[in-house]
Amino acid sequence: MSGETYRSAGVDIGAADIIKEMIHRYARSTHTPQVMGEQGFFSGLFHLQGYRQPVIVASMDNVGTKLKVAALMDHYDSAGIDVVNQNVNDIITAGARPLFFLDYIAMGKLDSKVIEGLMRGIALACQQAGCALIGGETAELPGVYQAGAFELTGFVVGAMERDAAIDGSSIREGDLLLGLPSSGLHTNGFSLVRRVFHIEDDPSVLHRYYPELGRALGDELLIPHRSYVHLLEPVRSRVKGVAHITGGGIPGNVPRVLPGGLAARIHRGSWREPPIFQVLQETGGIDTDEMFNVFNMGLGMVLVVSAEDAPAVQEAVPEAVVVGEVVRGEGDRRVVIEGL
Predict the structure, then answer these.
(1) Helices (H) and strands (E) in the chain — how many of each?
(2) Which CATH architecture best describes the domain 176-338?
């Protein structure tokens, strides 16, 4: 008698086991001495060491619709880098150091080529951040995801001393805002990007060379989300607040670190805006306010420091440029961008 099987329902356990062994290989390449055990546990074990009053800091996020561009370009390493860096950047804003990372990959039918590309990127970014990949989940979900579609989500845990938290409480009027440049779009605004360039209607546009960019559009869009963990490390004690410029742009993220009653005055033109933003704006006829509300516009992070500490921070991080200052708030407007 021939009955139904899990495989006939769309889930191949044998293929999944082969893929899991490949994943374990990449994960082991990131392990630090604090990782306990190899494989076989139903959870990841990490021995927390070296802290007097440890505070655990965690963040979780996904890569969003940038994954559709990765699929159309058949290039997945950068998406793996993205999912690590965007999460690591979130926890370092509080002053934490990343300890370990977990990933979640789901697709209708497991594709070893896609998963290996993602894992190469995840492992590389974890190694660069000093962060161990200790677990995750690879799910085969036929009927949930269409052919070629997949989900990529990451979860990071870090730690810091309680008295070293960057909580913004010491920010005062007159403090300076230092911007750290982005590598481009990072992982935000891709639903608008895809609409502007009609990518679903004509994917060949991804291979079109743009002289302003110096590369094909798809190559520009897949530039990984930059990590700031090593840039921030030497100046953590001098920084009063850190804003990771993600969804919502500068107006949506800088106010999150400012105490009540304070606002940010930003001087457009004080930093370099990568040419992809001008190409986007001109191609889509996008209003400038909308550009700043959606994209990072060339700033991946904004640091709040005292005027006295700014020179030392800039000496330690030469890429940091003064992009504005903290001012007294007026009404509900928390960010004023001059030069729009």
Answers:
(1) 11, 14
(2) Alpha-Beta Complex (3.90)
Domain 13-164 has CATH 3.40.50.1370: no
Mean pLDDT to the nearest integer, 127-155: 92
CB of 34 within 8 A of CB of 46?
Answer: yes
Average pLDDT, the chain: 93
Distance between CA atoms of 48 and 92, rounded to whole angstroms? 17
Measured distance CA(320)–CA(310) in Å, rounded: 9
Place of tokens 């963040």: 59
Residues 6+ apart with CB under 8 A from 109: 10, 12, 140, 142, 147
Rounded to two decimals, what is the model's pTM?
Answer: 0.92
Those residues with Cβ within 8 angstroms of residue 93's Cβ, 6 or more apart along the chain or in another chain: 166, 242, 243, 244, 257, 301
Distance CA 239, CA 310 (A): 9
